[in-house]
Amino acid sequence: MTYETLYALFIEELVNIAPDLDPATIRKDDQLQDDLELDSMDVLNLVAALHERLGVDIPEDDYVLIETPAKAATYLSTRLK
To answer: What is the reported pTM?
Structure first.
């Protein structure tokens, strides 16, 4: 999958977890918890959704690598090779 496809997929799953977010206003470098106001349970649900959709395990130590949509798309692209 391309970076762009993974980015769009991440945004889609993010909005599924936090439906009050407007995908048009989410920036690539928005911090999930600081800027988008996800709590720890939201992050866990997002990780579970990504696992279910892509089959990618994201260990807790790697959560910092998916803290923004841009970082998440990059991380996912390396994990899906």
So the answer is: 0.95
Alpha carbons 77 and 28: distance in angstroms, whole number? 15
- Going along the chain from its start, the domains and CATH numbers come out as 3-79 (1.10.1200.10)
Place of tokens 């407007």: 22
Rounded distance, CA 47 to CA 76, Å? 11
Please tell me what DSSP assigns to residue 34: T
54 sits in which H/E element: helix 40-54
User: pLDDT tens-digit profile of 52-68?
Assistant: 999 999 999 999 999 99
Within 10 A of 32 (CB to CB), how many other CB atoms are there?
23
Exposed / middle / buried, residue 4 (Cβ in 10 Å: 0-12, 13-18, 19+): exposed
